[in-house]
Amino acid sequence: MFARLRIPRAGATVAAAAASAPARTSTMQQMMQRRSLHYVPQLAHDFRQGVPGLLSADGYDMAWNQYMTLILDKLNALVAGTDFEQRDVKQILLATAQDPSQAPVFNHASMAHNTHFFFKNITPNPKPMPESLAAELSHSFSSVETLRREMILTASAMFGPGFVWLVKAGHQDYRVLTTYLAGSPYPGAHWRLQGTDMNTAGAAGSAAPYFQRAAAAQRPGQKPPGALDAVPLLCLNTWEHTWLRDYGLGVGGVGGKKAFAEAWWEVVDWDAVNAAADIPTRPNFMR
Description:
Layout: H1 10-34, H2 57-79, H3 89-96, H4 103-120, H5 131-141, H6 144-157, E1 162-170, E2 173-180, H7 208-211, E3 231-237, H8 240-247, H9 256-265, H10 270-277
Antiparallel strand pairs: 1-2, 1-3
């Protein structure tokens, strides 16, 4: 009545398993090779002893090592098994900026990118600003000192955490732009700019009118309204984990976020900013 089940001998089972093991191992190795997880990038400078004039060793460890490890671990968990494993964080934030369902992925990718952008533009050996860059910035802000004050005061006035950016909007056209939380300054991520502090709804820097001129419906494949080709050159990180350990809350006017912003200006790598600005040199014409 019942068909007899053929039970394989143990030796045959073990032999079959052993024969298939190399194939499974090889497949797993190939999958691991294809998977490109995100790791904390190596900075150009060794800040393990701190950033001279800006952050102590412990302050740097929290702001860079600990925070980037945390944010990238979470990003890796969010993108595991997806095509985003193969993309860098900038590509991920641009790809997810218009998709509300991907907000957690965008937030973690954008924070990783913004934090790296902040740290890659500071140096333990600051040099004077190149004359060509100073001339360009003075054309937009009347003087370099005016730019310095605007960035520092903008950071100090931000009620919520975020970033203050120096962006290039065109030839001799530079602006200060704020992004709150994990907002991004890139045109392709303009729907997630987060340029307004919802706690105060205050001004968002000299770039606010520039990024808020147009109003139109979102269309696939097009840039968001007002998202002109501004190139980020520099950013100041105002998140508390970056400055609170070394500067405190600023009670009584001592330390605090403003003091951190003032110290940051003194360690900016202006050579890197100048290279990113890509200022054309004037040709010499014969008369």
